[in-house]
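Input record, target 12 of the design panel.
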């Protein structure tokens, strides 16, 4: 009986030796745990993954996520262009019933020409779309060195012509309407002077054509953001919040001129969204660099899925901006969208980094990025210069932050 128990104990000891229980928390000879991942890889002939290899894999993964994000960005761009196309369709529909772009010209060349136009702008709405239109009261005085028997006033879109009256040599005459013109005549008698009054409606541009005559053209209106267009700019102009005034003085030696005002000069919100999206790739790169640098400095491993989910915020920003800008002004839409995305991404960063300070620093960087992006959008002519300077500042900051990332490990290797 005793011999049987002794044999059983020996068998148990042999089984224990064959399957030793390893305790990684214990201190083993040489401070190397037999069950550590490095020793298990060596046991099975696997080469341990170096930090450089991990870094390369992470960077390639981030680049792949960045490339994939251009798919939803392209979808938002398509949606923006589709909505802009609807706006152009509404503009065409309103122009068809109200009047489109108007150009006023003449069949004769007067010796002296004076034009005064008082323009009242207003907004016509259809659904969520708003289209600026205008009504113009135009007075024209002409003097002729050589007698002419008829004067034709050409109107590019006669749908907008509401009324026309004329005086020839001091007495009223009948205005006869044709297709896109008004005919003024005095029963075959020569005309030495002519005064014409038009009530004209239109949308977009209002232009006047002159050809080798002494001309004075004055246009006034209540539009606070007119665009002066044509072959020559006004000699004098004044633009205030309650309206504008512009005057052109042309001599009789000047060639044919086309001058006027564009009442659609302000970029639509769809154009602003399109311009904002031209910087989308740059913004996403800054976004990924910020998270990546935060990961390196905190030594907290961020999963590629978390990179992808967090990057959904900047992409959603553009769709949110598009949706809001159809109902409120662009500046408010921009900052409301930016604030919502910054809050979401900062809260998410706190979840996967488990620290407030790095998450708040990231949120601050995102806020600065949105503010700088908006400033660049406002600069227009200097947008390229401003964008280049911003890139230089970001690169310099990255050099300063990442310059000592691997310095401690390098010093340990040198000392070893």
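The sequence produced for target 12 reads:
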């Amino acid at each position: 009986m005793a011999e049987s128990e002794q044999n059983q104990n020996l068998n148990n000891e042999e089984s224990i030796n064959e399957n030793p229980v390893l305790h990684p928390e214990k201190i083993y000879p040489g401070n190397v745990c037999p069950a550590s991942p490095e020793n298990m890889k060596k046991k099975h002939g696997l080469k341990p993954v170096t930090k450089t290899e991990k870094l390369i894999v992470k960077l390639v993964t981030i680049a792949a996520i960045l490339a994939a994000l251009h798919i939803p960005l392209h979808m938002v761009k398509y949606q923006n262009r589709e909505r802009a196309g609807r706006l152009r369709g509404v503009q065409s529909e309103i122009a068809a019933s109200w009047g489109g772009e108007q150009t006023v010209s003449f069949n004769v060349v007067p010796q002296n020409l004076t034009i005064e136009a008082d323009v009242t702008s207003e907004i016509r709405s259809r659904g969520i779309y708003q289209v600026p239109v205008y009504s113009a009261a135009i007075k024209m005085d002409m003097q002729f060195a050589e007698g002419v028997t008829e004067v034709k006033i050409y109107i590019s879109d006669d749908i907008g012509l509401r009324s026309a009256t004329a005086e020839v040599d001091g007495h009223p005459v009948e205005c006869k309407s044709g297709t896109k013109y008004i005919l003024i005549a005095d029963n075959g008698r020569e005309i030495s002077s002519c005064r014409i009054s038009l009530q004209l409606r239109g949308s977009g541009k209002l232009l006047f054509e002159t050809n080798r005559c002494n001309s004075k053209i004055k246009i006034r209106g209540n539009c606070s953001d007119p665009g002066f267009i044509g072959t020559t700019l006004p000699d004098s102009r004044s633009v205030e919040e309650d309206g504008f005034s512009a005057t052109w003085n042309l001599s009789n030696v000047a060639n044919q001129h086309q001058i006027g005002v564009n009442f659609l000069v302000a970029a639509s919100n769809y154009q602003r969204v399109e311009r904002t999206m031209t910087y989308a790739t740059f913004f996403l790169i800054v976004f990924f660099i910020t998270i990546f640098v935060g990961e390196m400095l905190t030594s907290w491993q961020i999963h590629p899925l978390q990179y992808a989910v967090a990057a959904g915020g900047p992409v959603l920003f553009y769709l949110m901006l598009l949706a809001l800008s159809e109902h409120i002004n662009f500046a408010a839409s921009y900052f409301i969208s930016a604030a919502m995305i910054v809050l979401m991404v900062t809260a998410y960063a706190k979840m996967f980094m488990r620290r407030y300070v790095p998450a708040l620093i990231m949120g601050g960087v995102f806020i600065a990025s949105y503010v700088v992006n908006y400033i660049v959008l406002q600069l227009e002519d200097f947008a390229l210069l401003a964008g280049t300077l911003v890139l230089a500042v970001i690169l310099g900051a990255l050099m300063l932050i990442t310059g000592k990332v691997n310095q401690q490990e390098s010093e340990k290797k040198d000392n070893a």
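Residues 238 and 245 are 5 Å apart (CA to CA).
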